[in-house]
Structures are given as C-alpha cells and as structure tokens.
Amino acid sequence: MSNVHASTHPLVAHKLSRMRDKNIEPKKFRELVREIAALLCYEATSDLLTVPRQVETPLATMTGTELKEKIGLVPILRAGLGMVEGIWELMPVAEVWHIGLYRDERTLKPVEYYNKLPVEPTVSVCLILDPMLATGGSAVATTDVLKRWGVKKIKFVGLIGAPEGIKNMQEHHPDVPIYLAAIDDHLNERGYIVPGLGDAGDRQFGTG
Known about the structure:
The protein is of the alpha/beta class. The protein has a single domain (about 5-50, about 65-205), classed as 3-Layer(aba) Sandwich (Rossmann fold). It contains six helices and 15 strands. The chain has helices spanning about 10-20, 25-45, 80-90, 135-150, 165-170, 200-205, and strands at about 5, 50-55, 60-65, 70-75, 95, 100-105, 110-115, 125-130, 130-135, 155, 160, 180, 180-185, 185, 195. The strands form four sheets. Strands 1, 4, 5, 6, 7, 8, 10 and 12 form an eight-stranded mixed beta sheet that branches. α1 runs antiparallel to α2 (about 25-45) and α2 crosses α3. The two termini are about 35 Å apart.
C-alpha cells in the first residue's frame, strides 16, 4: 500500500478520537471535520509544483515561491462538503467542483445524480474529498469522472478508510494516492466502517 498515507500526526489522532465520540454534537463535529481536513491537505499537497517569484521584503529583494498548479477541490456530496472550508483556509484560490453520488442501500453501489463539470478541465490537480472511504464505490466513480474530464493528477483525501474501500480504489486507480486520518478494521453488513464514526453526513448536518 505504498500510495496509502495514514497520518501519524498527534493532532490528527486527537481530533479524530473526539469525532468518533457518539455524544459530540453536530456543531463540534463540523469543526473537527474542517480542522482534520486542513491537516490532511497539508500532508497531501507536499509535492505540488512551484515556480520562483521575486518578492520585495521591507529590507531586500529575494526570490520566493508560488504555486504553479491550479488546484480543484471535488467534495463528494453531501458529506464531503464539510471538508472544503478547512482546505480553503490553506488554499483560498482553489476551485470547487461538486459531484453528487448516493449509495444504493440495496446494492451498496454509487449512483451519480449531480455533475456540472465544464467541458474542459480548468485545474491541473484535483483533491477528491469524502470523509469515509468505505466500499470505495463513490471514490472510484468520482475518479472515473475526473479522468474522463482530463485531469491527470488526482488525490483522495478522507478521514477514515476501510481495507475494502482502499483495495477497491487501488484495483481501479492504482495511480491515485490516498490520504487518511486512520485505517479502520472492516465494513459491517450495511457497508459502514467499524469502529468508524457512524454516518459522516448525518453527523455533520444533524439528520441522523
């Protein structure tokens, strides 16, 4: 699993443990989603290409650095929405493109219901955002869409992954790195990650 990066940062571990607590209210849960997303994005973007830029400091002229690549954030609706704000704090010029998928509870397969991507890609790097990499169906389907769109550099950023979802992504898209706060034990019969944290969308939006 050379392209799977599970964070070992103490702040990530601390915040994720708080999120798992079933008694955390939605407002705090949303805050933790944003905070962990920002920390994971910091790790996931360490290889972004840069170009030199001349900067006038109060004391001298120097050669600084600026990002070369245009970044696109692709939250999988609806749970991925909560991760956008945290990453926007780090990259306020990043474009956001939404892809709507829901999981058929009978087949556990993703069903696409929303996609407004323009004809030609407007970004060179896309970060797929989804708190839970469970079966991996939504992540695989979203990656399929982005590759058809023409994006060459894609990364998945999530909070918790299950071995089943990671395997699914690696089998279909071995070129896509996966960044997670933690890898949990397994999926239950309903396709939920165990021990997990429940339904990330319901817990963010108070609909559970």
